[in-house]
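dude i think i finally got it to work??
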Amino acid sequence: MDWTLISSFAGALFAIINPFGNLPIFVSYTAGESKEVQRWLALFVSLTVLVFLLIFLLFGSTILKFLVSVWRHFGLLAEFCCCSPELVWSGAA
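look at this
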């Protein structure tokens, strides 16, 4: 196993999810709720995030390829790439 890749992936995922930054937001939104509701909501949000992460882990490259093909079809990719459409269509961008 490549521990460098795993540790950098885990660090990046931790930075993206940012649990310490999201904790005050969660606490402020659920301040008036009971502990049972807070636990249920924390579990629900955690499982929802897990499902989305697994979906993008399994199908992320397919989703991105589909979006790129749709963007190319409608000519939107050139606007996002900040280059001329000729470069996008030729695959040089």
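DSSP finds five helices and no strands in the chain.
im so relieved honestly
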